Amino acid sequence: MDYKKYIAEKIKVDGVTEEEVYDSLALPPNLEMGDFALPCFKFAKVLRKSPVMIAEELKNSVATDDVISEVSAVNGYLNFKINKSGFVRSTLEKILTEKDAFGASNEGEGKTICIDYSSINIAKPFHIGHLSTTVLGGALYRIFHFLGYKTVGINHLGDYGTQFGKLISAYKRWGDKETVDKGGIRALNELYVRFHKEVEEHPEYEDEARAYFKKIEQGDEECYALFTWFKELTLKDVQRIYEMLDIRFDSYAGESFYSDKMQPIVDELKEKGLLVESRGAQVVDLEEYGMPPCIILKSDGSSLYATRDMAAAAYRKKEYDFHKCLYVVAYQQNLHFKQFFKALELMGKEWSKDLVHVAYGMVSLEEGTMSTRKGNVVFLEDVIQKCIEKAYKIIDDKNPNLENKEDVAKKVGVGAVVFGALYNSKIKDIVFSYDKVLNFDGETSVYVQYTCARANSVLQKGGVPEAYEIPELSTEEIELVKAIAEFPEVVRSAAEKYEPSFISRFAVDVAQKFNKFYFDCKILSAEDETTKNFRLALTVASLQALKNAFALLGIGIPDKM
Ligand code: ARG
C-alpha cells in the first residue's frame, strides 16, 4: 500500500494539487514525531496564512481511520502516525510475494529508451575515465527495464577519424601482426603513442596518416581490412571488462556507421537555410542561444563529431522510435550536446526535446591524472584486478576457511569498483581510493554484501517461516520496514532523475537499519515463537530488498563471506 498516496488523497488544500502534496510528504527525523510529515511552509504563500495555522486547520479536516491512527500539528508540520501493524503486514506481504519483482512496475510499457553509454574509442585504452559511463549506463539500462521500458543499449563506438590513419601508418612502419594480436588494445595504444612521439621529428607522417584515413573511407581493401581488424581486437579486449561488470549492448553502431547517413542531414540543414559559411566551414549559427556555432562540415568538406551525432539521433528515432534517448557522457561534453540538440530543434525535429545528456563528473585515482597521447593511462581492468586482489587478501585474513574465496573476492572487488562510481550524485567528481571502496565498515558495497551474508546465515540457522503474525513492534523493526518499503519509489525516482546513486544509498540505509535490528533485537533467540517467526520473515524481506537493489546496480552478492 502506498501510504503517501493514501494520505495525499485526504488532504485538500486550495490551489495545491494532490501530486504536490504527495511530493511534499516526508519522513520525519524520528518515529516519535510520526511516520510521515507534511511541511506546510510551502502553502503559506498560496493560502496567505501562517504555516502553523495551516497545519492546525488541516489537522481538523483529516479524520483518523484504520490506516491513519493519529494526526497532529507541530510548528507548521502536519504529522501522521499510521497503523504500524497494518503497514508492516502489507509491506512484508508485498515483498514476500513479489520477490525478485519487488520494486518493478509496468509503467514504461510500450515505451523505448535508448541509452548511449560506454561508447569507447577503438584502439584506445579502456581507462578509468570510462568507468562511470559504463556502470551508470548499465544501471540505467537495468532500472528502466525493471520499470517495464524497452531498453536499447548502444555503444556509439569512436571508430572514425584521422587517428585510424595514424594507427595504420604506425602499424606499417613499426608493428607486426603477432605482437598486435597478442597485445590487443595495449599494443595498439603503444603504436599510437609512438606515432605521436615520432611525428614531432617527422611532420610528414601526419600527411601520410591523413591519406590512410581517406583510403579507409574510400573502402581501400588493405586499409579497410586493417581498420576492421583494429576494431575487432578492441571489442574482443573490452568484452572481458563488460563481462566482469555484467554490461551488455544491443547495438555497436559507432561513428563510422553514419558515414553514409550524414548527407541527408546536411541537405536538410541547407534547405532550411540553417547552414552558413564561417571561415570556410559550414556551421549552424547559435549565437542567439549564447553558444558558439555548431560546425557541420570543415573547409575540406569532412564531417565532424556533431554531424555524426545528428545523423545518429535521427537514425535512432527512425529505427527505435524512442520515448527518450539518453547520452551518458562526461560533463566536459556539455556544450557539444547542447549544440547539436539545438541544431536538431532548429531543424524542426520535435523529438529533439527527448534527447537527454546524462552528464557525470570525473573519476581520478589518488595517484593523479593521465593522457592517452603520452601513454600514462590507468587501465580500468588493472583497477578492477587490483581491487579483486585486495579483496582476496582481506577475506583471507578475516575468514581463511571460507569456501569459494576467489569467487567471493571477485564479487567484492568488482562490486567495490562499481559501487565506488555509483554512490555519489553522478555529477560530482570522484577521487577513487582502494581503501575507501573496500572498507567493511563504510558506506560501501562490501558493507552491504557482508550484511546480506549475515542475513543469509541467520536464515540458514532459523529457516524461512511459512507463516507469521505481527507481534508488538520495536522501533528498529519499524524503521527497517519503513526503509525497505521505500524501494519502489526509490527506483522510480532513480529513473526520473537518472540517478542510480539513489539505489546505492537505499542499499546502505537498509543495511544499516538491518544491522541495528540484528544487534538490538534477538532474531534466533527471540522471546517467543511469534516474534521469532516475524523477525525471520523480516530478515527474508530485508535480504530480498538488498538483492533487488544490487541486481539493478549490477553487483553480485556472495551467499557467505
Ligand atoms: N567516444 C566518445 C568519447 O570517448 C563518447 C561518445 C559519446 N556518445 C555520443 N553519441 N557522442 O568521448
Q: What are the defining features of this structure?
A:
globular, 53% helix, three-stranded antiparallel beta sheet, Gyrase A, domain 2, alpha/beta, Rossmann fold, 10% strand, 561 residues
Our count of helices gives 21
Q: Distance N terminus to C terminus?
A: 35 Å
Strand order of the largest sheet: 5-4-9-10
Shape: globular
Q: Give the % helix.
A: 40-55%
Major sheet: size, sense and barrel closure?
4 strands, parallel
Query: CATH H level of the domain at 112-261 and 302-365: which superfamily?
Result: HUPs
Q: What's the oligomerization state?
A: single chain
Bound ligands, named by name, code or SMILES: arginine
Q: Using the coordinates above, name the CATH class of the domain at 112-261 and 302-365.
A: Alpha Beta
Low-confidence stretches: none
On the 0 to 100 scale, the average pLDDT is 94
Instruction: Briefly note the CATH topology name of the domain at 112-261 and 302-365.
Output: Rossmann fold
Into which percentage range does the β-strand content fall?
Answer: 5-15%
How would you describe the overall organization of this protein?
- This protein is an alpha/beta fold.
- Among the domains are: about 5-80, 2-Layer Sandwich (Gyrase A, domain 2); about 110-260 and about 300-365, 3-Layer(aba) Sandwich (Rossmann fold); about 265-300, no CATH class.
- It is built from 21 helices and 12 strands.
- The chain has helices spanning about 5-10, 20-25, 45, 50-60, 85-100, 130-145, 160-175, 175-200, 205-220, 220-245, 265-270, 305-320, 335-345, 380-400, 405-420, 435, 445-460, 475-485, 485-495, 500-520, 530-555; strands at about 35-40, 70-75, 75-80, 110-115, 150-155, 275-280, 280-285, 295, 325-330, 355-360, 365, 430.
- The strands form 4 sheets. The chain has a 4-stranded parallel sheet, with helices on both faces. Strands 1-3-2 form a 3-stranded antiparallel sheet.
- Helix 7 (about 160-175) packs across helix 9 (about 205-220) and helix 9 crosses helix 10.
- The mean pLDDT is about 95.
- The structure holds arginine.
- Arginine binds near residues 119, 309, 327 and 329.
